């Protein structure tokens, strides 16, 4: 198999284009091909083009590239990624396939058409090139019949989930002739280069995730009809209460598209010889009727839900399946759902809802029971292990717990007993497992996890580079701990500071732990990583605490809090050992300031990063404004050059509370340095951060010491203020926005000093703190803080 540096995607529809975009995100050059159009568009005719023009012949792939560039959510990490995709067509550019390292088929889900394409590919195939199909359920073995020669050993299924950038799962499906080394190499490539979670599935209809997930959705609809439940009731039960996304059942179907879902369901029904399974995958009449009416979900404007505007406001109606009319949604409440809402963690939520005795608890049990029994019945047919099924459902359907993890959570023996009382048939291997004295499918130890496979416990293999803070804490590797943070020994003489406060918001407890961790690392470790395993790295400082002090006008206390934050960041920055911050997902405000204090940032590629304090009426005052002033000076190549362009950029980035769309985008925005790194695979994130600490230590890390910097001074400040005034007069910002911007400009420019004056970090921190305290005294700032805490959204006042 070749080293993959280039790829071609054939088919520029939603999936093909999305896959091409993510390959470009990973640094690959991609050829995107589609068929040649048969007719001109009105725009083509108006431009005097003919069917022979290359732009016309490449139109489908070219239009797909345009759509990708404007997609929401964004398909590309940043705008530069689009330049790695070259649009073409399958007539003029087909021979170019001989020069790529990976060919991906992503055309229509019709076996005969796919086989014809594979025959064409084989004619230009070069040895060692991997050829894969993105089919969601067609037999790989049936497709491989079209391949006569050695290409068959390099052909397999590689099924991405939509959208390819954001959905972590890829199912690899080898055929009987696929070389095992190719499967192993592709698994490694997908995990390391594309950041995917990979499961190897068997060549059965719909593979793993769509097989289990589709069954579960259809079973839920049948239970709904039998029990007389509404659309809203089903979604209230099948979302977070069962450890699943908020989109639950029917919002998920609307997002997928009801016509697409029916196609997936029919794929199993048509390919199975099992009468019971044919019945289970039969499409409900109501669903078929909706598709006949053109009610396909979000893409058609209505499905199980419909958004309407009334009196200038939007509201969501839900479909009453009895009358097929859209009606206002009614609140769904019960004791079991309330218990699930207050429970901590997915396992506790599911146990809480199942422990109730109301109709929603009964509904939840019926849905869970049927899904568990189906997964247990199919385990050996669709996958090599229960662990692969669990992983597929977590990554492909965003469940918090896979079927067998969920079964363990609710109690394996108790639930099987209940199933037996209800006359349900439990697969023999599950009964045998219990008869052997086992109480769960998984046995978890501090450093190892075992799972049942073929009647025996097998160790769950994980990459040696996968470092789990949870496992390390279970193995008693915690060095320091407090309610909000812990310092953990992660091996190789490196420590990790983990935040674990609510939302990982930074308060006095975490700031104290930062200072203690600095001292411990100084004396006992080679360096420090700052990372955590929360949903988001850090959403900022503890806004509630700050608001309470501001409302009480406890200005000395506010000043003390800000000094504590600033001093903690300075101590972090001045530690004589290398410090690496490893942010992921939402990293806002104070979270960015923590990263800016590190020597290097090793971010997960999906990091959304910004100094958003103006949204709550403030400016960054934990060193963020100071660091942006320093970086503006660093960006000026000539020490005596013009600071203003870089300063304007920093002013706009903070003033408009911009948030990056990815880690590479944060570099483009100037929020991260070009020397900072990004990692595609979240599971390998901590390992890469630790490796960067060790690399810096090994190369002779030298601490830079306190910095001084030349600032733009009063002249630069005047230009920044003028820019803000232009926005105010144009109605693009409010008067309070202007006040915030003026204070931000004062700090970034270094205050009222002559241009070119060299100032210290401490001087800039004093300016930060003074501006912050002044804004805390503004009623409109406090209103913004209250609104953010109440709604999670910024207030423009």
TrEMBL record:
One Gene Ontology biological process: fatty acid beta-oxidation
Domain 3-hydroxyacyl-CoA dehydrogenase NAD binding: 7-204
GO molecular function: (3S)-3-hydroxyacyl-CoA dehydrogenase (NAD+) activity; NAD+ binding
InterPro entries: 3-OHacyl-CoA_DH_NAD-bd, 3HC_DH_C, 6-PGluconate_DH-like_C_sf, ClpP/crotonase-like_dom_sf, Enoyl-CoA_hydra/iso, NAD(P)-bd_dom_sf
Protein name per Swiss-Prot or TrEMBL: 3-hydroxyacyl-CoA dehydrogenase/enoyl-CoA hydratase family protein
CDD domains assigned to the protein according to its UniProt record, in alphabetical order: crotonase-like
Known pathway: Lipid metabolism; fatty acid beta-oxidation
Record-annotated 3-hydroxyacyl-CoA dehydrogenase C-terminal domain positions: 207-306, 371-413
Pfam families named among the record's database cross-references: 3HCDH, 3HCDH_N, ECH_1
UniProt catalytic activity: a (3S)-3-hydroxyacyl-CoA + NAD(+) = a 3-oxoacyl-CoA + NADH + H(+)
Record organism: Paenibacillus ginsengarvi
Keywords attached to this entry: Fatty acid metabolism, Lipid degradation, Lipid metabolism, NAD, Oxidoreductase
Family: Belongs to the 3-hydroxyacyl-CoA dehydrogenase family.
